Request: fold
Amino acid sequence: MFWEGIQEYVELSQEIVKVMVSDNAAVTLKISLDMQEAMIDSLAETENQASELIRDVLSVEEVVAEKLLETEEAMQKASSRQRQIDQELQQVLKKNASLESSIKFLNKELDEVNHLEKEIAEVEKEAEEDTTVVIPSALYMAKLFHSVTKIDWDYSCDPTLIKGIHYGGEIAQPISIDSTQHSKIFICNYLWSLLSTDW
Reply:
């Protein structure tokens, strides 16, 4: 557009030269001056339009830059949140695996307890059916064992422990043996050593 204006100016200059050498110089000069004024007005309007376009472009660029910054900030926040969610998910998965393992262990323990309850129920049933023979014999054996060994056993302790109190000497002697730490032979020999050989 600017280049076209310059071209018109060159053409106008050529017309002025022609007018100066022709007979109708005044009329032609007036026409040329009117054309020049119209061209200058056109150039000024074009410049104003170009300036306005530049301002509009700069304004749009500013808005786009702000939007771009906001978008980048939003993307960074979203990325950070996603990393946090991934970490939380990993922790939940670990907890879930731990809980599943605990549930399996507890189910196994529950199965064992149910099995033991069935066995106890069967033993109790057998004991009820055969009370006359078993109970007096068991009581007799327990009394006989106590009178010979002078040991009161602690039946409430852990099954792996052998606990009780031996009253066979001058003072009562506590017994506490971990059966997982000693052999059966050692335990048997130790208990026999507590018995008095004086009849």
About this structure: The longest strand covers residues 161-166. The two ends are 137 Å apart (CA to CA). The CA atoms of residues 140 and 146 lie 10 Å apart.
